[in-house]
């Protein structure tokens, strides 16, 4: 009985892994992309449990399926860990005038706690501020508060995003 339970779990983990790679935009399919670490953890636990299976043929199938799950998931996880080499070089000390600081804030449209973001912007003083889900009735007023007393170069708005270039930035159009 436990043999087929482990096989079912392995197949379910493979199905969730493959669903995360399907190029459809339904939320229940996109949701399969996010629990990668949890899927790997569960796959390891099922693999350890499969080592005690008495049916060797079934054990090989379960371990083969789980190896595929681990390979596909780790392919996506490892580049975001310290185990992977860095792709961006660190800035050299003493070159602050050549560096740009960026702050990204997902503030959610119904959020009315603008003081929290204002405090963080004033503390960290980024050169560019990108806010996501920030367009609402009061958004323009708190955006003005963020840049009070600072040279505001440009501001771009979309239906769900605002980008404020605070210190001497120039906008370029990507083609």
How many beta-strand runs? 4
Helix content: 40-55%
User: What's the main sheet like?
Assistant: 4 strands, mixed
Order of H and E elements: HHHHEHEHEE
Q: Could you give a quick summary of the protein structure above?
A:
The chain folds into two domains: 2-80; 96-165. Helix content is 45%, strand content 11%.
Any key phrases for this structure?
disordered C terminus, 4-stranded mixed β-sheet, elongated, 6 helices, 175 residues, alpha+beta
Q: What's the arrangement of secondary structure elements?
A:
Blueprint (H helix, E strand, L loop, with lengths): L1 H18 L7 H4 L5 H15 L5 H22 L24 E5 L7 H11 L3 E5 L6 H8 L7 E4 L3 E5 L10
Polypeptide structure, described:
With 175 residues, this protein is of the alpha+beta class. It folds into 2 domains: 2-80; 96-165. It has 6 helices and 4 strands; from the N terminus they run H-H-H-H-E-H-E-H-E-E. It has helices at 2-19, 27-30, 36-50, 56-77, 114-124, 139-146, and strands at residues 102-106, 128-132, 154-157, 161-165. Strands 1-2-4-3 form a 4-stranded mixed sheet, with no helix packed on it. Helix 1 packs antiparallel against helix 3 and helix 1 (2-19) runs parallel beside helix 4 (56-77).
């Amino acid at each position: 009985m436990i043999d087929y339970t482990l096989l079912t779990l392995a197949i379910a983990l493979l199905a969730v892994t493959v669903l995360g790679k399907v190029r459809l935009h339904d939320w229940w399919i996109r949701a399969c992309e996010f629990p990668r670490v949890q899927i790997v953890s569960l796959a390891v636990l099922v693999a350890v449990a499969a080592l005690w299976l008495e049916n060797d043929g079934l054990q090989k199938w379960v371990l083969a399926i789980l190896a595929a799950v681990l390979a596909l998931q780790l392919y996506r996880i490892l580049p975001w860990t310290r185990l992977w080499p860095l792709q961006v070089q660190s800035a050299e000390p003493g070159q602050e005038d050549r560096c740009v600081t960026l702050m990204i804030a997902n503030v959610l449209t119904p959020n009315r706690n603008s003081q929290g973001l204002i405090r963080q912007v004033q503390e960290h003083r980024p050169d560019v501020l990108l806010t996501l889900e920030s367009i609402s009735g009061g958004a323009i007023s708190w955006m003005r508060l963020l840049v009070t007393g600072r040279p505001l170069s440009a501001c771009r708005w979309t239906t769900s995003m605002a980008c404020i270039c605070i210190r001497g930035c120039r906008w370029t159009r990507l083609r």
